[in-house]
Structure formats: C-alpha cells, structure tokens
C-alpha cells in the first residue's frame, strides 16, 4: 500500500513556495523558488515536474493557493488564474485541489469555469490561523513584494480583490526584496543632508536588508536590479547608484547610515498603515510571518507594542531536520494543506 504525501503550493507572481507533509502530517520538506511568472511560465512547469518526480511512488494530493494572477503578462486576472491552473493540471502528479475565496477546495473543472473564486486566496488561509489564536489582534504577513494586514474582524466579503484590500488598508504594496527604493522615499539622508533619489530601478529593498544583515541571501536565489547577486558589495553599489554615486570603499559607512534610514522609513510606513486600521495601537498584540517578519518585530520594539512570536504556538509538526523559520516565511503553503484536514 502506498503512503500518502500531501503537498501545499503557494504560487505567487515572484515566488512559488512548497511545503510537503508525510502520511502523519509531519513536515518533511520546504522549498522556496524564485520564479518570475511574468517572464516565463515554462519555469513554473519545470519546477512542478521536478517536485512531482520526487513523489511518484506515493499517493500524492496537491493543495494550491494562488496570487500570481495579477502579473502583467496576463491580459486580466481571469486569464492569469486559467493559465496557472492549466499548468497545475498538466504537470502535477496526483490529486489536485485549489483553495477558493469561498473557503472551499475545488477541483480543476470547477476552477476553470469560475477563475474569480481563486483570486489572491493565500491571506484567507492565514486569517484562519489568526481566528484560532485569541492572543493575536493583528498578524502582519510581509513578503518580498507585499504586506498583508490580517485580523479577526476583517470582513472577507469586502476584501476579495486587491482593489478592495488596498482601499481598506489591508494590503500594502511594500515588501522586503522587490520594492524599488524610489517607491519608498523621495529623498534620503546622506552625510547629514537631504538628498533626492534617482527615480530609476537601480536598487530595491532587498539591498537594504542585505546590508543590514536582516536577510541572509546566501541560501536564496534572488538577483538584484542589475541582474547581479546579493553580495554585500553589489548591494552597496546599487544603493550608491540611487544617489548618483559610483561606490567607493570610503563611502561605505555613510551609505550604511543611509540604508538604516531607509529601513526606518519602511517601518514607519507599515506603522502608519496599522494606525489606519486600529485607533489604539498600544493595546495591540501583533505577530508576523513572511520573509520580512523581522521588520514587524522591530516596529513593535520601536513603538512599544506587544509582539507575539507565533511560532511558539507549535501549529505544525516540524522535525529538527527542518528549519522552523522557513515554515513561517512560507506559511500559506503549509496552511493550505492543514486547513483541508482542519488541523492546527
């Protein structure tokens, strides 16, 4: 008799995240792949084939949540969903279930007839986790590109599209890897003076958090705005370029000061958004997940808000061989599986 394998996929525009559970719902693998859906869908197909090939001897079930439909290579989001689920249907081995914004899991034939039901569903899974924890008032999920603000009494029916979530301040298009620096600030402080930024895609927030050492890029497959890797030197060069400089070693200390100034700007933008949702932030219990969860912890420290480490609640069975931090950076890919079985 074949053992069961349960695979969760969170398919985003810039990254696809995978969590694999064994027959006993123990996490046995976590995979993070930087796939730019807007560039080439073939890479997604190849990645799915690679994942499926590892589990051909098992009874496999795949559970999928999608946020990639907004990529601008698709004429509209319906086409985006249809394109992605067709790839899922033709390349993934085993049963396939898509998580819908109706809170249900549907199969391919139902999904293809009503793609709108699959728009941006991963935050809905995270909300279910918030609903389980009475100690958390606000969970902030900050990834490479966006920040989600998720709380108990958020009205789902008025937040089913990115437009609605932006309007309601529940979605902020700001992330810790891909956001261009000139989208964060009009100017920076450099050598004690205000300096306007060059409005070109020379550097991103990934360079900021590479230099501050908040993110370890040595285990990630991201590349920078100039198609070079995230070495410390390359990030310093890219940041210098945004203020009209060719980087020299003598500039390093001043550029690092500028980088921490940008980091604080990001924190304040997120804090401002929290204040648009909650009138009294001092009484909040806030937690965070995603690649930028460290930034929310820093925000809470700076503004004296109670911070809760959500991983202490042990929602998943994680062996010592799996880095727990990876789970909470890729949370919806795990939740899309456990939610199907109503497991914490």
Task: Describe the fold and architecture.
This protein is of the alpha/beta class and 344 residues long. The protein has 2 domains: 4-122 and 314-338, ATPase, nucleotide binding domain (Nucleotidyltransferase, domain 5, 2-Layer Sandwich); 136-307, conserved archaeal protein q6m145 (Nucleotidyltransferase, domain 5), CATH 3.30.420. The chain has 11 helices and 13 strands. The protein has helices spanning 41-53, 77-91, 108-113, 122-132, 162-167, 205-211, 232-242, 252-277, 293-302, 324-329, 331-338; strands spanning 4-11, 15-21, 27-34, 59-66, 95-99, 105-106, 138-142, 147-151, 171-172, 187-190, 193-196, 285-289, 306-307. The strands form 3 sheets. The chain has a 6-stranded mixed β-sheet with strand order 3-2-1-4-5-6, sandwiched between helices.
Overview features:
344 residues, alpha/beta, Nucleotidyltransferase, domain 5, 2 domains, 6-stranded mixed beta sheet, 5-stranded mixed beta sheet, globular
What's the N-to-C terminus distance?
27 Å
- What's the number of helices? 11
Assembly context of the chains? single chain
Please write the CATH class name of the largest domain. Alpha Beta
Helix fraction bin = 25-40%
Coarse morphology: globular
Secondary-structure arrangement, i.e. CATH architecture of the largest domain: 2-Layer Sandwich
Q: At the third CATH level, what is the topology name of the largest domain? A: Nucleotidyltransferase, domain 5
Sheet with most strands: 6 strands, mixed
Written as H for each helix and E for each strand, in order along the chain, the element string is EEEHEHEEHHEEHEEEHHHEHEHH
Judged by helices, strands and strand pairing, the structural class is: alpha/beta
Instruction: Please give the order of strands in the largest beta sheet.
Output: 3-2-1-4-5-6
Question: Ranges with pLDDT <50 over ≥5 residues?
Answer: none
Kindly provide the radius of gyration, computed on alpha-carbon positions and rounded to a whole number of angstroms: 20 Å
| DSSP, total strands | 13
Average of the residue pLDDT scores: 94
Percentage of residues in DSSP E strands: 15-25%
Number of domains: 2
**The CATH superfamily title of the largest domain:** conserved archaeal protein q6m145
């Amino acid at each position: 008799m074949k053992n069961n394998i349960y695979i969760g996929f969170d398919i985003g525009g810039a990254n696809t995240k995978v969590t694999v559970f064994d027959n006993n719902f123990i996490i046995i693998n976590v995979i993070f792949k930087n796939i730019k859906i807007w560039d080439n869908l073939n890479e997604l197909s190849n990645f799915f084939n690679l994942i499926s090939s590892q589990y051909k001897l098992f009874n496999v079930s795949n559970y999928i949540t999608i946020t990639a439909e907004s990529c601008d290579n698709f004429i509209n989001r319906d086409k985006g969903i249809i394109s992605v689920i067709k790839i899922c249907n033709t390349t993934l081995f085993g049963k396939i279930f898509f998580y819908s914004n109706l809170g249900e899991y549907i199969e391919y034939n139902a999904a293809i007839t009503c793609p709108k039901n699959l728009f941006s569903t991963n935050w809905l899974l995270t909300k279910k986790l918030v609903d389980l924890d009475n100690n958390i008032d606000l969970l902030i999920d900050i990834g490479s590109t966006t920040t989600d603000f998720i709380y108990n009494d958020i009205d789902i029916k008025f937040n089913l599209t990115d437009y609605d979530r932006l309007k309601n301040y529940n979605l902020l298009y700001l992330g810790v890897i891909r956001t261009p620096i000139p989208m964060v600030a009009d100017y920076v402080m450099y050598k004690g003076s205000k300096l306007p930024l060059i409005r070109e895609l020379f550097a991103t927030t990934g360079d900021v958090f590479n230099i501050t050492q908040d993110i370890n890029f040595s285990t990630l497959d991201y590349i920078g705005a100039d198609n070079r890797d995230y070495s410390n030197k390359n990030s310093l060069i890219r940041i210098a370029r945004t203020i009209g400089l060719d980087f020299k070693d003598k500039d390093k200390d001043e550029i690092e000061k500028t980088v921490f100034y940008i980091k604080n700007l990001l924190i304040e933008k997120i804090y401002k958004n929290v204040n648009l949702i909650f009138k009294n932030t001092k009484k909040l219990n806030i937690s965070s997940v995603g690649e930028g969860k460290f930034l929310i912890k820093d925000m809470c420290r700076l503004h004296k808000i109670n911070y809760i480490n959500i991983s202490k609640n042990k929602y998943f069975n994680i062996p010592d061989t799996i880095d727990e931090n990876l789970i909470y950076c890729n949370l919806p890919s795990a939740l899309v599986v456990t939610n199907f079985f109503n497991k914490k």
